[in-house]
Design brief:
There is one protein chain. Helices cover 31% and strands 21% of the residues. The protein is built from eight helices and nine strands. The chain has a four-stranded antiparallel β-sheet with strand order 7-1-8-9, with helices on one face.
């Protein structure tokens, strides 16, 4: 049963004519009627079902406006890298003992970074980390000798972009309290990243079939993209 608050929100907004993000953000923010700082979320559907293959996107984007979220970052590294990881702001740092804790299901972090030398040991925990999307990946910059850079990026506003089997991608643009300018910059960064992904894949037709924006407790609106790709 819908709450009184939800009943006051506009109806069938997803059926309206698509509008550019700049016009939709004031409307989205107006619909943020709860007490907490709602997230402004982007939902995309991509054309992942191709004749000869299926497109699977998994990459990261550094959001210039940040995410507004505190991310708990863990690092698996050699003893020589411990001080570097600590100085960069890692929340949890460890080596063999830490890997053993993860193996036993002790997962109290949201991002895991690993040095190449320790990845051989960590890779055996695919069944534990894989389903949670926490396995470090060189393509995502989370398997690297430069732990300082990886930690800084994870803490300052890095978001992962990946599609599910139905071609859906969900990613947050930030918080309702963000300025429109910040949210637009984050949106543009995501679109630019997806444009690069299209050029790296053989996609017949447009990559993005539809785009919607909503807030955590709001209703969704269809976004008009500046161009099809």
């Amino acid at each position: 049963m819908a709450s009184k608050r939800f009943k006051k929100l506009p109806e069938k907004t997803s059926e309206l004519v698509p509008e550019i993000l700049e016009k939709l953000l004031p409307v989205i923010k107006k619909n943020c009627t709860v007490k907490f700082d709602e997230s402004v979320d982007l939902s995309l559907q991509i054309n992942n079902k191709q004749k000869k293959s299926e497109i699977n996107i998994r990459t990261v984007v550094n959001l210039p406006g940040g995410t507004g979220k505190k991310v708990k970052v863990a690092v698996v590294c050699e003893d020589a890298k411990t001080e570097e990881a600590k100085a960069a702001g890692a929340d949890i740092i460890g080596g063999d003992d830490f890997i053993e804790k993860i193996k036993n299901g002790e997962i109290n972090f949201e991002k895991l970074i690993c040095t190449p030398g320790m990845m051989v040991k960590l890779s055996k925990l695919g069944k534990v980390l894989g389903p949670k999307g926490l396995m470090p990946n060189p393509k995502l910059g989370s398997v690297t000798p430069d732990v300082k850079k990886a930690i800084t990026e994870a803490k300052s506003g890095q978001a992962e972009i990946r599609n599910d089997k139905d071609g859906n991608i969900g990613v947050s643009l930030g918080k309702k309290s963000f300025s429109d300018e910040k949210l637009i910059k984050n949106f543009n960064a995501i679109i630019e990243t997806l444009e690069k992904e299209k050029s790296n894949n053989t996609v017949k037709g447009d990559l993005i079939k539809s785009a919607f924006i909503t807030s955590t407790m709001g209703v969704s609106y269809k976004v008009k993209l500046a161009k099809n790709f």
